[in-house]
Specification:
With 209 residues, the protein is an all-alpha fold. It folds into two domains: 13-66, Arc Repressor Mutant, subunit A, CATH 1.10.10.60; 75-209. 70% of the residues lie in helices and 0% in strands. The chain is built from eleven helices and no strands.
Length: 209
């Protein structure tokens, strides 16, 4: 009887990992990979190197992430999730047509990256990342709707009179303004740029007038 039970246990193998334990392991891997990517550059780090820092075999690592880019996408999702949580926490102005709401959203967006330049470089300047890698992430159904916070603010200022294509063009232009301001302030810090508040005000007027 005991021998039969032993064989049954052996056949079953190791118990399946719970979702909670799996998620904890994924978070640990992502945290270690984030440090490596920031310290040495995404392109220079291999899955074998990450596995070594985690303390597991490469085969084990692949049970949690199919490829290095999937780890990076997890980090992107964390950073952008935090950013959009801050944007969505910005109190609405009393008047929906007030440009101040769009201006404040722009300031929160730019200031977030200025306060976390290491995140900016991780998201926008990671070496060895291909355009398809980025497109698959940016087009994800979880992320795309969150960008509409800018379109909504622009639409309010314009009294909801914009056609969908025109509204999209204005939101795209505003994001290009914000990313351009951020990029130059971070990467060309020696130049005496005007303050982000002033530049964002010009961007707001540009997409709402």
């Amino acid at each position: 009887m005991n021998e039969t039970k032993t064989k049954q246990v052996a056949a079953r193998g190791r118990p399946a990992m719970t979702d909670a334990k799996r998620q904890r392991m994924r978070r640990e891997i992502a945290s270690i990979a984030k440090r490596l990517f920031q310290d040495e550059g995404y392109g220079k780090i291999s899955m074998r190197r990450i596995a070594g820092e985690v303390g597991c075999s490469p085969m084990t690592l692949y049970k949690y992430y199919d490829a290095k880019i999937h780890i990076l996408r997890t980090l992107w999702a964390d950073v952008l999730g935090e950013l959009f949580d801050q944007l969505e926490a910005v109190p609405e102005t009393v008047s929906a047509t007030d440009k101040n709401q769009l201006h404040r959203l722009g300031m929160v967006y730019v200031q977030y990256w200025l306060d976390h330049t290491e995140y900016y470089r991780l998201v926008f300047m990671a070496d060895g990342v291909t355009q398809p890698d980025v497109s698959l992430f940016i087009d994800s159904p979880e992320l795309v709707p969150r960008f509409n916070i800018f379109a909504s603010a622009i639409s309010d200022v314009c009294s909801n009179k914009l056609e969908p294509n025109a509204l999209k063009a204005k939101q795209d232009a505003f994001l290009c303004f914000l990313n351009g301001i951020t990029h130059n302030l971070i990467t060309i810090s020696g130049y005496p740029w005007s303050g982000p508040d002033e530049m964002i005000a010009i961007a707001v007027n540009g997409v709402t007038d």
